[in-house]
């Protein structure tokens, strides 16, 4: 049951091959048995899952419910869940129980999904390897010595190991796409504003966007449709109808103009990863896509620009965690300043502190113009490069990440090396564009087969196109159907 896609599970539920309760018990059993070695979950919500499943079975028995009714899912622990712990994998929020559901959580719940639990992540979504979590690193089911990517690493490991059919993620600079690539999943980051950020704990508000980690583009389409749409509670959510993504998956590849981003096939790209991506380009071409070379000359500015903008916004967003209103409070503060200093000093981990300090610095009176303002100008250049490219092509293509999954600890002492893992994904966030990562092959490292991801980025609100190209590709390949040994 656990290797079935969401669409297959939905069909099975409707045909009464199994009940939602059967399904839920099966996944809870896998989580109990296989969860600990992966450390994919912060909280397993077994009681809630069983209650959700019983309710779903009742709706199904009455012939009610939609395509997701009774399907188990997991949420990244950055989404507020009413009455259930929401930690953001930080000591700061290790005791935080939100009094409401995030819009994404509410919508998936209304669609009839069953909540299995909350997944581990990098602390406050800052990281690319899931090693900054207060609850310890997540392991990659393809090789337990390696990272699953981050920051949505728990969601990725859980879905890749078939502990959940799908999960939410959030992507500020690559945190859905990069873990999808490193664990052989389909991960979509929608256009900024497509999905509500209400109740999603903010990291960098102008970059954060919620999305889906799933085992196929068809599943991602179904799940995105159920979470997207206008929300009056999020002033940056866009009031624009949500397409029926799942019904638009068969747009032909013939004539599709695919731009290959020249700047993303240079130094730093592992040749074995490049080989997989090039083979995928050949396949698209055979199926009638028109391949074009595109240059986006400002893209090499993405990482430095991001590491000014994102810390700046995070330093402001995280100022609310002051030991007074939310989360961790130090013991016996001497005075107010001591309360702030020790609560924050004890509550935040090293990477979060590094970002807050960088952000405070670039926003300070003396350096604002030199760093923050300059970064905003670079951001406009990057967005302009994409806009020009989309005059000529329908989507742009690149690897998702320069390497396959790396070993735990390999980059923890070198923040810059860690930051560079998102070199291909960050630009889409800076420009607010939708991006998807899909499995496109494997490389062998140290005797282990490790998945490789291919990234497609489209124009604003081009999710339907990204999903349909991905779906077509998945009709011709079976990379996405492979499951790590020991988890099948
Ligand atoms: N890895 C990037 C960072 O550390 C992106 C994280 C994310 O997308 N949330 O900031």
Characterise this structure.
- The protein is an alpha/beta fold and 488 residues long.
- Among the domains are: 6-256, Amidase signature (AS) enzymes; 299-378, no CATH class.
- Helix content is 38%, strand content 13%.
- α9 packs across α12 (368-392).
- The radius of gyration is 21 Å and the shape is globular.
- The termini are close together.
- Glutamine binds at residues 125-128, 151, 171-175, 203, 310, 422.
Task: Identify the notable features of this structure and list them briefly.
single chain; 488 residues; alpha/beta; Amidase signature (AS) enzymes; 8-stranded mixed β-sheet; 3-stranded mixed β-sheet; 15 helices; 11 strands; binds glutamine
The CATH homologous superfamily of the domain at 6-256 corresponds to: Amidase signature (AS) domain
Total strands: 11
What is the oligomer described by this structure?
single chain
> What is the average per-residue confidence, as pLDDT, rounded to a whole number?
97
How far apart, in Å, are the first and last alpha carbons?
10 Å
β-strand amount: 5-15%
Low-confidence stretches: none
CATH architecture of the domain at 6-256: Alpha-Beta Complex
CATH class of the domain at 6-256: Alpha Beta
Specify the overall morphology.
Answer: globular
| Number of helical elements | 15
């Amino acid at each position: 049951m656990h290797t079935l896609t969401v669409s297959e599970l939905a069909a099975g539920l409707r045909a009464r091959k199994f009940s939602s309760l059967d399904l839920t018990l099966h996944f809870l059993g896998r989580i109990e048995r296989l969860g600990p070695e992966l450390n994919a979950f912060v909280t397993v919500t077994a009681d809630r899952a069983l209650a959700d499943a019983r309710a779903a079975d009742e709706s199904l028995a009455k012939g009610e419910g939609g395509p997701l009714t009774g399907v188990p899912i997991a949420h990244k622990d950055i989404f507020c869940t009413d009455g259930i712990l929401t930690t953001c994998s930080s000591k700061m929020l290790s005791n935080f129980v939100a009094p409401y559901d995030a819009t994404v959580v509410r919508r998936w719940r209304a669609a009839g999904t069953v909540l299995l639990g909350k997944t581990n992540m990098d602390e406050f979504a800052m990281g690319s390897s899931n090693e900054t979590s207060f609850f310890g690193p997540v392991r990659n089911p393809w090789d337990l010595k390696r990272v699953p990517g981050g920051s949505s690493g728990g969601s990725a490991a859980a879905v890749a190991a078939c502990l959940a059919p799908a999960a939410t993620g959030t992507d500020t600079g690559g945190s859905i796409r990069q873990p999808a690539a490193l664990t052989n999943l389909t991960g979509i980051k929608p256009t900024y504003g497509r999905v509500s950020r209400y109740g999603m704990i903010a990291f960098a508000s102008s970059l954060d966007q919620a999305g889906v980690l799933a085992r196929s583009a068809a599943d991602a389409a179904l799940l995105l449709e159920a979470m997207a749409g206008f929300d009056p509670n999020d002033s940056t959510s866009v009031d624009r109808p949500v397409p029926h993504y799942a019904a638009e998956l068969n747009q032909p590849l013939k004539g599709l103009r695919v731009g290959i981003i020249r700047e993303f096939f240079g130094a730093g790209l592992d040749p074995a990863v490049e080989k997989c991506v090039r083979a995928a380009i050949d396949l698209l071409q055979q199926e009638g896509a028109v391949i074009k070379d595109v240059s986006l000359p400002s893209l090499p500015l993405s990482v430095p620009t991001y590491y000014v903008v994102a810390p700046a916004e995070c330093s402001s967003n995280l100022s609310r965690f002051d030991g007074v209103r939310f989360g961790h409070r130090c013991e016996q503060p001497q005075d107010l300043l001591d309360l702030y200093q020790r609560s924050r000093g004890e509550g935040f981990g090293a990477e979060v502190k590094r970002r807050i300090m960088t952000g405070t610095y670039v926003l300070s009176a003396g350096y604002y113009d030199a760093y923050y303002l300059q970064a905003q100008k670079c951001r406009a250049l990057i967005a302009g490069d994409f806009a020009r490219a989309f005059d000529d092509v329908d989507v742009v293509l690149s690897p998702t990440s320069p390497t396959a999954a790396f070993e735990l600890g390999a980059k923890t002492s070198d923040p810059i090396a860690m930051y560079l893992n998102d070199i291909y994904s960050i630009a889409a966030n800076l420009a607010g564009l939708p991006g998807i990562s899909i499995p496109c092959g494997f490389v062998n490292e140290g005797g282990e087969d490790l998945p490789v991801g291919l990234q497609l980025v489209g124009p604003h609100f081009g999710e339907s196109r990204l999903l349909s190209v991905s779906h077509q590709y998945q009709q011709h390949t079976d990379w996405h159907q492979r499951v790590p040994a020991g988890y099948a």
